[in-house]
Amino acid sequence: MLEERNADGAWAPPSSPEREREPARAPRAANVAKAAKAAKEAKPAVAARGSEAAAHPTRSKAAARPTRKEAEAAVRTLLRWAGDDPAREGLRDTPARVARAYEEFFAGYRVDPAALLARTFEEVDGYDEMIVLRDVRFESYCEHHMVPIIGRAHIAYLPRHRVVGISKLARLVDVYAKRLQIQEKMTVQIADTLQEVLQPKGVAVVIEAAHQCMTTRGVHKPGVAMITSRMLGAFRDDATTRREFFALVGGSAPQAPAYG
Predict the structure, then answer these.
(1) pTM > 0.85: yes or no
(2) Active site residue: 72, 154, 181, 183, which one?
(3) In the predicted model, is pLDDT for residue 148 greater than 60?
(4) Which of 20, 52, 103, 143 is catalytic?
(5) C-alpha–C-alpha distance, residues 227 and 208, integer Å
(6) 236: which of 30, 65, 69, 125 lies 20 to 30 Å off by Cα?
(7) Above 80 in pLDDT, residue 31?
């Protein structure tokens, strides 16, 4: 067995593997203890940030929103992926146009639907019959393929003590339509918001629409319309009220619209 010299030049027996590992154990244990202490101290700060985000959800969303420059760069990437050259004359301004269009297409994210219905009127001379707004045209976008959903909505409610301006009903449809959507969810959102804010005796919403995710791609079935409904309160419980509503909006089985 060979011998080694120590730091003073004297001969010393070789160190065993166990002896060589021992000095490393102390720093490793110290590092673990130090990391545990740092994690413990960081917990209050993380909790504080979490509670702040919960109190200000819009702030956290805004912080995560990409800039316009980043959005335009993403459009250029998609143009290249599609096989074209975003630098050519016809596409040079397309990224900026798409970013502006998205601001219009998805303007509903910037509107509070409950605040939209906040102003109501109580001077209705005891009117307590059905209020119906039919054929409210809308344009939305499928959240699965980001292609248009074009259709119309029929809305009704039975007022209890107050009514809302009819333009607000149309705006409510637009608030939810101008988001990435599926029709089932949009139907529920419109009806539930009306019920929660106005607290009427009942709410009815019927939506019929053509989905370009199945008319221009996939199964390619033009002329097909999807119909969804949401009945709350008196419209769900009273068959007579429900029949009256469907009669006013054009029947219990609306015809498929010829939307483009």
Answers:
(1) no
(2) 183
(3) yes
(4) 143
(5) 4
(6) 125
(7) no
